[in-house]
Amino acid sequence: MSVNTISINQQMAHFEGQDSVWLFGYGSIIFKADFPFIERRPAHIVGWARRFWQGSHDHRGTAEAPGRVVTLVPQAGATCCGMAYLITPEVFAHLDHREKNGYLRLVTDIHFGDAEKAEGLIYIASEENAAFAGPASEKEIARQIFRAAGPSGRNSEYLLLLAQALRELGTDDAHVFEIEKHLLQLEREAAAEHQTAGGNGA
Ligand code: BEZ
């Protein structure tokens, strides 16, 4: 179902010889930094938009009911805000494994405010990867997320943690917040149905 990207990522030699590299996190890496880092700073990248367009059958869904997680898609003039981590090269082995389902490393400029930037890495899952789910309306995406769960937990937890982390960063991400709005509505409807069903059965 998917191409394992570990060996492709490990062939990247761009930062060879450097003892630390900046990694820009725009998804789970913002709220789940399960790796050692030297420093972390809010940052942004230019020309990319965060989208819930990557299928997840290994973390937040299953083969039968895949979830959706974020990737980056190229978009002229767009800015994507997230968190940058300064890490040692060994940490990439862990990340390559964690993000093996279609994510490839890519070199890009990472901006810290308006005046400072550094070359670093992002992981992106492009439309060529087998698990790419592609565009859908925010409501459809919310429905899919609402239903899905996998070894890393419920897909809705991923969405809600990401939305909360973006709020804490002071970022207005219309795509993520619109999906969150629909998801919360679905959860309210399900809770009301559950209550009604419980009430009828009593
Ligand atoms: C991130 O948070 O930057 C990230 C998301 C998905 C895969 C790899 C990295």
UniProtKB/TrEMBL annotation:
<dbReference type="InterPro" id="IPR006840">
    <property type="entry name" value="ChaC"/>
</dbReference>
<protein>
    <recommendedName>
        <fullName>glutathione-specific gamma-glutamylcyclotransferase</fullName>
        <ecNumber>4.3.2.7</ecNumber>
    </recommendedName>
</protein>
<dbReference type="Pfam" id="PF04752">
    <property type="entry name" value="ChaC"/>
</dbReference>
<dbReference type="InterPro" id="IPR013024">
    <property type="entry name" value="GGCT-like"/>
</dbReference>
<dbReference type="InterPro" id="IPR036568">
    <property type="entry name" value="GGCT-like_sf"/>
</dbReference>
<keyword id="KW-0456">Lyase</keyword>
